[in-house]
């Protein structure tokens, strides 16, 4: 047998170094010690009865956070994108149509996922970053194209926009179309009621207002959605994301035994359980009003600095992620680099269609308090003094 020819890399012989950062961007958010500690508990087997008990608790926590009594509620092993793909892969069969509202980058992503799967028809409605009273467009598109799924982002983190959800599900159901909603950036920060708003599939991520580490993604399917996905003629393209297997892994299929499908992120599930417990202790309504109160304090402070908020209408602003129009006479990358270097604070630029148009500040969950908002404002004020390129 030949011997090892590649030596251990020098970096692997040095200890891990992780700097401290104030994560005031659109996510991930800082993880509070209580959640970090939960994630640091000793591992147990992913198929142990105690683990199933913890997964059952997570299911209850998600049902509360989503305001749903759907049995088909679980957490994906993976980030928000995993839940996004899981929903599209399981609901739509080849040749069927999908309707996507693009009000920023997340609609673009879902359209691309659907395009890659060779779905028959994708109609993109809504200009980027704009709120549109979508009901009339939706009615026309549903009647004309008969899609099986309509996608809408609730909290558009690239635009800083929260899209009103009332009535959308009712319209979809009139045309036998399922409503898929992305709440990765808004869950826990802005009101959303899955059952009352007739949402068929809702997903979020662990790393935003829930303050868990990235890597798990709560998702829930209505009875209507279950009927569609469990009566399909073809198997979904992904084995890993096949809801037939995942529903058994989460004990949702009524079978007496759970059979090994994949090894879930045990530590990630511990952390997610703790984050859902914190939300349950605080109460959803308190969490929503707290995010709004802090966001309003931040918005006022930004306007006092002479900055312009990107979303003009206060009611359409996402409380968790604020978008600021890049002030004239500044290089946005320089502003961000200055704030990171001198204040250890992460803000970010735009994403997808909003690149070069906005700066984004996210104050979510544990990070959402007046002291952090004041710190963010002071850092921005300092950067505005130091980084001016030209007199506007
Ligand atoms: N949707 C929205 C609204 C998001 O803000 C994000 C993350 N920025 C995602 C989806 C994707 O989530 P993830 O990065 O966890 O895959």
TrEMBL record:
**Residues found modified as N6-(pyridoxal phosphate)lysine:** 208
Signal peptide coordinates: none
UniProt keyword Disulfide bond present: no
Name the coenzymes or cofactors required: pyridoxal 5'-phosphate
Q: Which GO terms describe its cellular component?
A: peroxisome
Q: What class of enzyme is it?
A: transferase
**Keywords, in A-Z order:** Aminotransferase, Pyridoxal phosphate, Transferase
Q: What is its EC number?
A: 2.6.1.44, 2.6.1.51
Query: Which terms does the UniProt entry file under GO BP?
Result: glycine biosynthetic process, by transamination of glyoxylate
**Where would you find the membrane-spanning parts of this chain?**
none
Positions bound to substrate: 360
Single GO term (MF): alanine-glyoxylate transaminase activity
What the entry lists under Gene3D superfamilies is as follows: Aspartate Aminotransferase, domain 1 (3.90.1150.10), Type I PLP-dependent aspartate aminotransferase-like (Major domain) (3.40.640.10)
The record's section on InterPro entries has:
Aminotrans_V_dom, Aminotrans_V_PyrdxlP_BS, PyrdxlP-dep_Trfase, PyrdxlP-dep_Trfase_major, PyrdxlP-dep_Trfase_small, SP_NH2Trfase/AEP_transaminase
Q: Which family does it belong to?
A: Belongs to the class-V pyridoxal-phosphate-dependent aminotransferase family.
Oligomeric state and interaction partners are given as:
Homodimer.
Protein name (Swiss-Prot/TrEMBL): Alanine--glyoxylate aminotransferase
The organism's taxonomy opens as: Eukaryota, Metazoa, Chordata, Craniata, Vertebrata
Per UniProt, what is the name of the gene that codes for the protein in this document?
LOC107691560
């Amino acid at each position: 047998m030949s011997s090892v020819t590649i030596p251990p890399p020098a970096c692997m012989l040095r200890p891990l170094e992780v700097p401290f950062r104030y994560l005031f961007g659109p996510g991930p958010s800082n993880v509070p010690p209580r959640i970090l500690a939960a994630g640091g508990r000793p591992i147990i087997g992913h198929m142990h009865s105690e683990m199933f008990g913890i997964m059952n608790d997570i299911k209850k926590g998600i049902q509360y956070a989503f305001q749903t009594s759907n049995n088909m509620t679980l957490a994906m092993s993976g980030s928000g994108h995993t839940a996004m793909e899981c929903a599209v892969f399981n609901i739509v069969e080849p040749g069927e149509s999908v309707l996507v509202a693009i009000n920023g980058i997340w609609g673009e992503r879902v359209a691309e996922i659907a395009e890659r799967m060779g779905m028959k028809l994708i109609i993109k409605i809504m200009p980027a970053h704009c709120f549109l009273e979508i009901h009339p467009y939706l009615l026309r598109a549903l009647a004309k194209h008969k899609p099986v799924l309509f996608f809408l982002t609730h909290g558009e983190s690239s635009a800083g926009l929260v899209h009103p959800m009332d009535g959308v599900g009712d319209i979809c159901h009139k045309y036998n179309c399922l409503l898929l909603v992305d709440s990765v950036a808004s869950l826990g920060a802005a009101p959303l009621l899955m059952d009352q708003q007739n949402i068929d599939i809702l997903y979020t991520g662990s790393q935003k207002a829930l303050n868990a580490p990235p890597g798990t993604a709560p998702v829930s399917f209505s009875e209507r959605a279950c009927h569609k996905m469990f009566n399909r003629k073809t198997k979904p393209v992904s084995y890993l994301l096949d809801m037939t297997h995942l529903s058994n892994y989460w004990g949702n299929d009524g079978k007496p035994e759970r059979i090994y499908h994949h090894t879930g992120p045990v530590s990630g599930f511990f952390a997610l359980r703790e984050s859902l417990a914190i939300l349950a202790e605080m109460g959803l309504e308190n969490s929503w009003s707290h995010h709004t109160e802090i966001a309003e304090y931040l918005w006022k402070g930004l306007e006092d600095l002479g900055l312009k908020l990107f979303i003009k209408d206060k009611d359409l602003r996402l409380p968790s992620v604020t978008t600021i129009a890049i002030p004239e006479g500044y290089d946005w990358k320089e502003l961000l680099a200055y704030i990171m270097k001198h204040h250890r604070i992460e803000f970010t630029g735009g994403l997808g269609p909003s690149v070069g148009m906005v700066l984004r500040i996210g104050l979510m969950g544990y990070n959402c308090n007046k002291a952090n908002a004041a710190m963010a404002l002071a850092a921005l004020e300092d950067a505005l003094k130091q980084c001016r390129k030209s007199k506007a």
